[in-house]
Design brief:
34% of the residues lie in helices and 19% in strands. Helix 1 packs across helix 2. The protein has twelve helices and twelve strands. The strands form two sheets. A ten-stranded mixed β-sheet has the order 1-2-3-4-7-8-9-10-11-12. The radius of gyration is 21 Å and the shape is elongated. It has 348 residues and is α/β, with parallel strands linked by helices. The termini are far apart. It has helices at 21-30, 36-46, 61-67, 129-132, 141-155, 174-188, 205-210, 227-233, 242-256, 274-284, 309-321, 342-347; strands at 76-82, 88-93, 99-107, 110-114, 118-120, 135-138, 161-164, 195-199, 217-221, 260-266, 289-295, 326-328. A hairpin with a 5-residue loop joins strand 2 and strand 3 (99-107).
């Protein structure tokens, strides 16, 4: 399995969450402590869920007092919304007071966490509640990893899958996303193939991601079968033609040997027609890929509607007839403001 490289090192003021055993060992030695305390610190952060260095009982009392103000990097739960199906959406308050969303999605023996990578999002997709709320900043690696640990602790169940499909565009925060992927894989212990990074498509960033030869899943938010409609739904698409995006995706498949998942939100009367399904199939023919169709979750800010079940099935049938791998992914927890950014918008 490919190894996700270390991106940054720990200094005396950085939150410790997201750091590797090696980084934590170097840090404790800088503090004049023996090297084995690095492994102890790692265990308490990732497996015991400690939130303050002062609470690590295996450390000397005097040293705990000296480092008590150094942050581990945990957030607090600002709000928690529980849906009938067991899905829980969290609003997490960060150290600077900013609020981000994370979602815990239980199913059978799995627990999937949907994490955010930015406070808000600069992409301003026309159908997206997060995009309507504007952009504040990137999340640091500890703020991404913290979302997974918070959900894991609240559910009292080990997280099995993580999808980077929450607030923000992950490939506009590549350094911290790569650092968080490394930590989730090597520190939290989630297999690379169980980690998914979603992107709307940023020029050259998919190619750059491919160079790391990771075994993660790449999910590309396509949402339209042609450039004209894509620009209508995704303003940034005018800077990145769909032909160029798909060419870069093909390079990703060639370099990594991993198929690409294409996310396609179905909007009634906009992009859900059978002829549009046929156009999409022609674009993806011969591509090592999979299409995830996502019936739209309505938001108050725009008038888009969810297609009927018959319209969804007709779209699926066309893709299958064209030998395109396809599945329909219904969002969980509709009662809990299912669309990304909805709950944050309401509570703020």
């Amino acid at each position: 399995m490919s190894v996700i490289p270390l991106i940054s090192s720990v200094d005396l003021t950085s939150p410790l969450l997201g750091a590797s055993v090696a980084e934590l060992t170097a840090w404790v030695q800088q503090q004049g402590q023996p090297a084995y305390r690095g492994k102890q610190l790692h265990d308490w952060i990732y497996h015991k869920g400690v939130r303050s260095l002062a609470d690590i009982s295996v450390f000397p009392k005097q040293w705990r007092a000296e480092v008590a103000d150094i942050p581990i990097g945990r957030s607090s739960i600002h709000h928690r919304a529980v849906a009938a199906d067991g899905t829980i959406k969290y609003l997490l308050q960060l150290a600077d007071g900013q609020i981000v969303e994370a979602v815990g999605i239980p199913s059978d023996k799995r627990l999937t966490v949907c994490v955010s990578t930015q406070v808000g999002c600069p992409m301003a997709c026309d159908f997206c509640a997060t995009g309507k709320g504007g952009y504040k900043r990137n999340l640091a690696r500890h703020e991404i990893v913290d979302q997974v640990l918070t959900v894991q602790e609240d559910f009292q169940q080990r997280v099995s899958h993580v999808v980077f499909m929450g607030m923000g565009e992950p490939l506009l925060n590549t350094e911290n996303v790569l650092a968080a992927l490394r930590s989730l894989n090597q520190d939290v212990g989630i297999g690379q193939r169980l980690l998914t990074v979603s992107t709307v498509g940023i020029r050259d960033r998919i190619r750059q991601l491919a160079q790391h030869h990771l075994q993660i899943t790449l999910a590309v938010s396509l949402h339209a079968p042609n450039q004209e409609l894509r620009e209508q739904l995704i303003p940034s698409a005018r800077f990145y033609p769909i032909e160029d995006l798909l060419a870069e995706c093909r390079e990703y498949v060639e370099i990594t040997g991993r198929r690409v998942s294409f996310e396609y939100i179905l909007l009634a009367g906009v992009n859900d027609l059978p002829e549009q399904a046929l156009e999409l199939a022609k674009r993806l023919r011969g591509f090592q890929s999979h299409v995830n169709l996502i019936p739209y979750n309505p938001i108050e800010e725009v008038d888009y509607k969810r297609p009927t079940s018959d319209r969804i099935q007709a779209f699926v049938n066309v893709l299958k007839q064209q030998f395109i791998a396809v599945s329909v992914r219904y969002s969980r927890g509709l009662e809990a403001d299912a669309a990304c950014g909805q709950l944050r918008s309401r509570k703020q």
